[in-house]
Design brief:
- There is one protein chain.
- By secondary structure, the chain is an alpha/beta fold.
- The protein has helices spanning 11-21, 49-59, 74-90, 104-114, 130-139, 165-170; strands spanning 2-6, 27-36, 41-42, 63-68, 95-97, 120-122, 143-150, 184-190, 200-209, 216-225.
- The chain folds into two domains: 2-122, 3-Layer(aba) Sandwich (Rossmann fold); 130-225, putative n-type atp pyrophosphatase, domain 2, CATH 3.90.1490.
- The strands form two sheets. Strands 1, 2, 3, 4, 5 and 6 form a six-stranded mixed sheet that branches. A four-stranded antiparallel sheet has the order 8-7-10-9, with helices on one face.
Length: 229
């Protein structure tokens, strides 16, 4: 079954990709990514396009890019996603994989978006305990760094940290350890399905406001290619 992965560069979509790669019934065609025009970054996660391309090269899977404008109206987003789905159908894609774990409204949105298109949504991580998933992710050898945190849910010291056993030990028990409720976003730089680790360094930090409350809320840490020493 020819399959596209809804890919952000973060840990959940990477884990979903890995799960699908273990099933010989699926053939991974490409990584569907949403990028913001003018910023040249992954939408929401804020990771640079160049770093995403390094992930694609290491994974050995091409990107399928969807570019959206800044402050994208919903109707424009829908239009461009419909164009992406049309292209997928033309390429013989039959399934689309998502890394969602337990948010019912998000899953329902995905299913509605693909309803009637001929592409079947697949959720390989769905319903699994987040604590179990987080430990498995680390034990498999995946390595990821936090690129964005919600300051209303986590202390700023978590920004830029690597997601490892020490991270799990320090993480607040009251928060979702997989970040399903928007606590954080990540960039995966190595793992069992990577051909080579992605060398990076952390750049400047910036805080952006919540569009509804206008309060400073989201702390982004820039992830840059490692400069030659």
């Amino acid at each position: 079954m020819k399959t596209v992965i809804a890919f952000s560069g973060g840990k959940d979509s990477t884990m979903a990709l890995y799960n699908i790669q273990q099933n010989p019934e699926y053939e991974v065609d490409s990584l569907l990514v949403t990028l913001t025009e003018g910023f040249d970054r992954v939408s929401i996660h804020g990771v640079r396009y160049g770093m995403l391309k390094q992930q694609s090269e290491s994974l050995g899977i091409p990107l399928r890019e969807v570019w959206i404008p800044q402050e994208c109206p919903n109707e424009v987003y829908q239009e461009r996603m419909e164009g992406a789905v049309s292209d997928m159908l033309g390429d013989g894609v039959t399934h689309m994989v998502f890394g969602d774990i337990h948010l019912e409204d998000v899953r329902a949105y995905r299913e509605e978006m693909l309803s009637g298109t001929g592409i079947t949504p697949v959720f390989p991580l769905w319903g699994r305990p987040v604590g179990e998933l987080s430990r498995e992710f680390i034990e498999l050898g995946f390595k990821t760094v936090l690129t964005c945190i919600d300051l209303e849910q986590l202390h700023r010291s978590f920004a830029g940290r690597v997601y490892d056993r020490d991270f799990l030990r320090d993480y607040p028990e009251s928060r979702d350890v997989c970040g399903e409720k928007g606590e954080f976003h990540t960039f995966v730089f190595d793992g069992p399905n990577f051909g080579f680790p992605i060398e990076y360094e952390l750049g400047e930090e910036r805080v952006t406001p919540d569009v509804q409350t206008e309060r400073d809320r989201f702390l982004f840490v820039d992830v840059l290619p490692m400069r030659p020493k």
